[in-house]
Amino acid sequence: MHELFTVLPPGDAFAIFGRGCSPVDRSEIVPLEAALGRVLAVDVVAPETLPAFARSTMDGYAVRALDTHGASEQSPAYLRLVGDVPTGVVPRVAVGPREAIRTHTGAMIPPGADAVVMVEDTNQTPSTSSGQAEIEVLASVAPGEDVLVIGEDIVAGALAVPAGRRLRAADLGGLAALGIVRVTVWAQPRIAILSTGDEVVPIGAAPGPAQVRDVNATTVTAIVAAAGGIPIPCGIVPDDAAELEASLRAAREAADAIVLSAGSSVSVRDLTAEAVSRLGPPGVLVHGIAIKPGKPTVLAICSGTPVVGLPGNPASALVVAWRIVRPLVRLLGGEAVDPDGLGDERELSAVLDVPVPSRPGREDFVPCTLARDAAGAFHATPVFGASNLIFTLIRADALIAVPLDRSGLAAGETVRVVVP
Amino acid sequence: MHELFTVLPPGDAFAIFGRGCSPVDRSEIVPLEAALGRVLAVDVVAPETLPAFARSTMDGYAVRALDTHGASEQSPAYLRLVGDVPTGVVPRVAVGPREAIRTHTGAMIPPGADAVVMVEDTNQTPSTSSGQAEIEVLASVAPGEDVLVIGEDIVAGALAVPAGRRLRAADLGGLAALGIVRVTVWAQPRIAILSTGDEVVPIGAAPGPAQVRDVNATTVTAIVAAAGGIPIPCGIVPDDAAELEASLRAAREAADAIVLSAGSSVSVRDLTAEAVSRLGPPGVLVHGIAIKPGKPTVLAICSGTPVVGLPGNPASALVVAWRIVRPLVRLLGGEAVDPDGLGDERELSAVLDVPVPSRPGREDFVPCTLARDAAGAFHATPVFGASNLIFTLIRADALIAVPLDRSGLAAGETVRVVVP
Question: CA torsion sign, A358 to A359 to A361 to A365?
Answer without folding.
Answer: negative
